[in-house]
Amino acid sequence: MVRPPCCDKLNVKKGLWTEEEDAKILAYVSKHGTGNWTAVPKKAGLRRCGKSCRLRWTNYLRPDLKRESFTPQEEELIIRLHAALGSRWSIIAQQLPGRTDNDVKNYWNTKLRKKLSEMGIDPVTHKPFSQVLADYGNIGGLLKSRTRIGSLNRDMKNSFMIKPEPHPPQPAIAAEGFSNINNRRVMKTMASPGIEPIQENFFPSSNINQHAATCGSLDLLSQLQAIKLVTEASNYGGYQIISPQFPNQYTLSLSSPSSSSSTSSTCSTTAQEKAGLAFSWRDFLLEDAFLPYDHHPQGQDHIPEFESKDIAPQNHSGNETSAEHIEDDKNIIINNNSRVLSGMDSELLSYGIQASSSTESSFVAAMLDQENEMFSEFANLLEDPCY
DNA sequence: AAGCTAGACAACCGCGTTCCG
DNA sequence: TCGGAACGCGGTTGTCTAGCT
Q1: What is the span of the domain harbouring residue A23?
Q2: Disulfide engineering: A356 pairs with which of A70, A113, A302, A333, CB 3.0-4.6 Å?
């Protein structure tokens, strides 16, 4: 990376800003407006990088910034947007007047992530840790018991380090195990050698494992298809988690507590043959959370309140087909991303299903995570097709 | 009182994208 | 069309402070 010319000078000042420096920025902006930040240090008489000036103005000096703490409404909106968008802080911040992306990011990292973790919810995927574990176990089976904890996301790692038992944590119990989730001192400790390897055969076997054992590998799309199928199947066999603060947010309503989140999973090809499913790459695009209200099925219990036109203009392909939905006599309330259920096993359809939009849309984030995992962890498999 | 720990948030860094000559 | 500069974003680090031992 080539350092910008304005930052090349050795005498560029770093660190916290003084009131005098702030005053210079304010005076400059009030006179010249924003823009051409590289010229600001010189014109304003500052020994700062232009980039640093812009950041100071954007994150601190802008007159329209809110200084008070986040409201519960803002909290909920952040969580819902994060579930739909992932860590697109600038886009999320656009929906919160007076808040900067840095504000939102810091608030997420220091408060909300921990809060979700204490609720037993993975802040990355917005799914219960138990379900993430189960999903990961299914995919991790392809590793032939070579899975390492190091490939899990941070919060899952912490949950392992603190609560090593593989059984799904119940939310109320899990709370005590997820303190200090975001503390980087803990992260550094966790990264220390010697504690990273996880016991072999940690994750449960699955039909995917069996198929992979015979096939040896799956192509990437097939693996994504498998993940999606597993995820969606798991959604309907997971746990009921109802946050007292966000009672509508993380509600996976189900009627069969005996159903393991991993038991109904199967390899994509097998499942597709069995259920007549057909996936394409479009199935894995982020789209649902941004559909206008009238594109969602009636009766859907969770409609994003933000304006879809303002965010994520990408990935809007194929709305005319993706807007399909199902609402049958089994009281299935799902969003349009769950159309694959149309041919799903009757054993899945036997459950009463309520999947919030955040749960469904967070699938994409989980998918991307797992895809990255696969690229790194399964590199040898992807390079060694069995066909 | 001193040292330590953790929370909060400001600021920096690196990278990708966009703009412009 | 190309290359450099500027901009924007997300992840990470630094610093301050309050609370605890």
Answers
A1: 5-61
A2: A302
